[in-house]
Amino acid sequence: MTWSRLTTTAGAPVADNQNSLSAGPRGPLLLQDWRLLEKLAHQNRERIPERVVHAKGWGAHGQFTVTHDISAYTCASLFSGVGKTTPLIARFSTVAGELGAADAERDVRGFALKFYTDEGNWDLVGNNTPVFFVRDPLKFPDFIRTQKRHPRTNLRSATAMWDFWSLTPESLHQVTILMSDRGLPQTPMHMNGYGSHTYRFWNAADECSWVKFHFKTRQGHKHFTNEEASYIVGQSRETYQEALFGAIEAGAFPRWTLFIQIMSEAQARACAFNPFDVTKVWPHADFPLIEVGEMELNRNADNYFAEIEQAAFSPSNFVPGIGASPDKMLQARIFSYADAHRYRLGTHYESLPVNRPRSPVRVYHKDGAMNFVGQQTGVVDAYYEPNSFGGPAESPEFREPPMPIEGDAAHWDQRGDDDYYSQPRALFALFDEGERARLFSNIAAAMAGVPTEIVERQLAHFDSVDPAYGSGVRAALKRD
Ligand code: NDP
Ligand code: HEM
Fold first, then answer.
1. Does the annotation mark 54 as catalytic?
2. What is the pTM of this model?
3. CATH superfamily of the domain spanning 57-164+173-355
4. ipTM of predicted complex
5. In a 10 Å sphere around its CB, with 0-12 CB exposed, 13-18 middle and 19+ buried, how is residue 89 labelled?
């Protein structure tokens, strides 16, 4: 066996990595043992802040292949031509649990994708649900607080969750999905992914439309009941990592089919509901799924920390042909993620190998903590813009077509649209008897210990969806 030489971080050979430098065989140690100091100091800095949400995650590398031409809707290079492939990285996650949380817990799953396109990185940071709990970003930190630990008990609080949800009826759609079978997938491979928000497409002729993204699992949907999950968690807390990593190691590459829904600008103006409200889906009957391509995950990370933990996904990573819609939640996320990354990973997080675009990067940003990339304009004297030294310059041909905006600036009541019930009703109508029974008992279990007035407020919402929903939960509460 050949050994390569062990060194310090400064490259000096390490003569002894088993024994500290001590005065005599029994010590004490000498402060001048710079190799020991370096080793301990490095260990103290091994942890970085975990993600404030979606801390526990599992991911892999893969690729996206276009199978159907959608150039009528978008000029995005990654969709340009059947057969085109684009490398990507995916990270799945639970929302509320910390880094050490068990995988098989009932929660929404994150479904974050970074496509390394030839015109920069496009990140689609979605979930395994097509909707979300709130529709104004001002409510996001409060919502997350109800999912995390109580300040005094340091325990998660069912009271906080149902208090918030019952006072926030726009959450009902997502709460119903969370408490249904799909709220506890068996593995990340057995669930769909959704962009959730409405995004904007424009094509080569600058014609614009609104779009939603759906990744449908090719492995089929598989879920655990609460009882199964508690047994599984007793056996292993890492079932998602084991399943995803194991499948890819074994060559059983998971796949998803990407579909889009398209809404024209005229249809959006005439839409009965707000098409930019992330608590609503677009009914398939009105906006049919259009097949686009296939995503396959086929390579595990060689280093989990470098490639999955340091992956930094952001809804602000757009590429020409794909843009933001007026969705208020999406607008806030465009700020929030890059801000989180600068805090969690540092100013130059985009230069880390997993985040670095595969297309050239030419920026005038300068210096900063931990700058290991130097100047990124490619021309020494071009460190400001405009300049006379041939530095990188803007490309007007990539300009997004103007987006018409109207209305007075005000703190518009996001409750303006108060139809909280018809889409959850359409979902409830899809459930068979078994699914309904599990929905009722999952909700009853999740309500254990919640004060009656909060339970009653929530039951009234279930009644408004369908009397059978409310009465089913009532009966399950009596049984528990
Ligand atoms: P459709 O019957 O055309 O679509 C139903 C959708 O619901 C399909 O995407 C299906 O996904 C999904 N679905 C099926 N069974 C379940 C389940 N048990 N739990 C969660 N999702 C399920 O109806 P509509 O488009 O009119 O939507 C009706 C309701 O379906 C909506 O109110 C929404 O709650 C839910 N839904 C709608 C989606 C949409 O984009 N329109 C997307 C996902 C859910 P799959 O094909 O993977 O089984
Ligand atoms: C992670 C903020 C809504 C999906 C995060 C992170 C923040 C955040 C700060 C941690 C980022 C990091 O440290 O890497 C917000 C805000 C929201 C919002 C402010 C609303 C205004 C949503 C919605 C979705 C979503 C609607 C899905 C449609 C995700 C996912 C991750 C994440 C998947 C994990 C990404 C990864 O794997 O690294 N969010 N979020 N979030 N969020 Fe959100």
1. yes
2. 0.97
3. Catalase core domain (2.40.180.10)
4. 0.97
5. buried
